[in-house]
From TrEMBL:
<dbReference type="GO" id="GO:0005737">
    <property type="term" value="C:cytoplasm"/>
</dbReference>
<dbReference type="InterPro" id="IPR027417">
    <property type="entry name" value="P-loop_NTPase"/>
</dbReference>
<feature type="domain" description="Sulfotransferase">
    <location>
        <begin position="71"/>
        <end position="329"/>
    </location>
</feature>
<dbReference type="InterPro" id="IPR000863">
    <property type="entry name" value="Sulfotransferase_dom"/>
</dbReference>
<dbReference type="GO" id="GO:0051923">
    <property type="term" value="P:sulfation"/>
</dbReference>
<dbReference type="Pfam" id="PF00685">
    <property type="entry name" value="Sulfotransfer_1"/>
</dbReference>
<keyword id="KW-0808">Transferase</keyword>
<protein>
    <recommendedName>
        <fullName>Sulfotransferase</fullName>
        <ecNumber>2.8.2.-</ecNumber>
    </recommendedName>
</protein>
<dbReference type="GO" id="GO:0008146">
    <property type="term" value="F:sulfotransferase activity"/>
</dbReference>
<comment type="similarity">
    <text>Belongs to the sulfotransferase 1 family.</text>
</comment>
Length: 337
């Protein structure tokens, strides 16, 4: 055996041993922590205050063990269904605006989720293998800030949040489409009850949002806190803010040439949802998860909750939101922008 083969084999078996140790740790954790009803799978598990799919817990352990950030990395963080797909498209096309033409753009051919990796699911060993990506590397995550490794929290993070009533309705639709066929359907009433108790993937919603909101107040240069509703109302204003935050402000010449408007148009719900790739294409995450792109585009509106939630349900969620956000300075929902 050559020295290099010997070294590679030794390193690989050390990595395998570390990986096996994490799998063991994960198994014990799952047996020990509280569990609640899942939306797409039977159970979610409460890991350090947040309800996660068992695979997301394992992946979080892997992230802490293996992920190495670079100082120029930019992360997109969000609670599920708060605007991830839209932001992914906007961030990718803004960072790469000098590289691609608007008439034949990668977003015309691949779904927004292929633009950059989703680190909650890129299972080992992919997690340690992002060195080929050009700087600034971009990554997406749904983990609350408190579950991110310190090497990530020291990077720039764009966070997007949304009215929890619209998040609930959007998530219920999405999860119903992905619910295990072995389980009975999850009614909206059940989903509502679980959501209010904080039990949904990456929940409680309010603690998730607050984890980033508080950090954004402490280190505004590190966290850009956005709202879906604000993006819908003033996409150009938000995009310019986003570009400045990412270190790529639009130049006077670009503004003159309507580059901002072109990116907003390219990433709009109307444009993206009508592309063939987003009607028929499939996005693969990690080794096992496949999601049809069309499931990321439903209505794309503010206030669709009115078509699903009763006045009583609205009052209850708004009450929880007011209570949880009291004193934080953050307002979500109606008049939040
Ligand atoms: P994810 O967290 O699973 O990636 P995410 O993209 O955050 O999902 O949420 C999907 C929601 O964003 C959907 O909302 P709805 O169910 O209320 O309709 C989807 O329609 C909406 N959405 C996707 N792309 C856009 C876009 N370009 N502009 C506005 N809304 C969008």
């Amino acid at each position: 055996m050559s020295i290099s083969t010997y070294l590679t084999t030794t390193l690989e078996s050390k990595q395998d041993a570390d990986y096996n140790k994490i799998c063991e740790e994960h198994k014990h954790l799952i047996e020990a922590v509280p569990k609640g009803n899942g939306w797409s799978v039977q159970h979610l598990y409460n890991y350090n205050g947040f309800w996660l799919h068992p695979n997301s817990i394992k992946n979080n352990l892997l992230l802490h063990a293996y992920f190495k950030s670079q100082p120029t990395d930019i992360f997109l963080a969000s609670f599920m269904k708060a605007g991830t797909t839209w932001l992914k498209a906007l961030m990718f096309s803004t960072i790469n605006r000098h590289r691609y033409s608007f008439s034949d753009h990668p977003l015309h051919h691949h779904g927004p989720h292929a633009s950059f990796p989703y680190i909650d699911i890129e299972t080992y060993p992919a997690i340690s293998d992002f060195t080929h990506l050009p700087a600034p590397r971009m990554f997406a995550t749904h983990y609350p800030r408190t579950l991110l490794p310190p090497c990530i929290t020291s990077c720039k993070i764009v966070y997007v949040c949304r009215d929890p009533k619209d998040v609930l309705v959007s998530k219920w639709h999405f999860m119903s489409n992905h619910r295990s066929k072995d389980l009975p359907p999850l009614s909206l009433d059940e989903a509502f009850e679980l959501f209010c108790q904080g039990i949904s993937d990456y929940g409680p919603f309010w603690e998730h949002v607050l984890s980033y909101w508080r950090a954004s107040l402490e280190t505004p240069d590190k966290i850009l806190f956005l709202k879906y509703e604000e993006m819908k109302k003033q996409p150009e204003v938000v995009l310019r803010k986003l570009a400045v935050f990412m270190g790529k402000p639009f130049t006077a010449e670009e503004l003159e040439k309507s580059v901002v408007e072109k990116i907003v148009e390219l990433c709009s719900f109307e444009t993206l949802s009508n592309l063939e790739v987003n009607k028929k294409g499939v996005q693969k995450f990690g080794k096992f998860l496949e999601v049809e792109n069309r499931h990321y585009f439903r209505k794309g509106e503010i206030g669709d909750w009115k078509n699903h939630l009763s006045e009583e349900m609205k009052q209850r969620i708004d009450g929880i939101t007011n209570e949880k956000l009291k004193g934080s300075g953050l307002i979500l929902g109606v008049n939040s922008t």
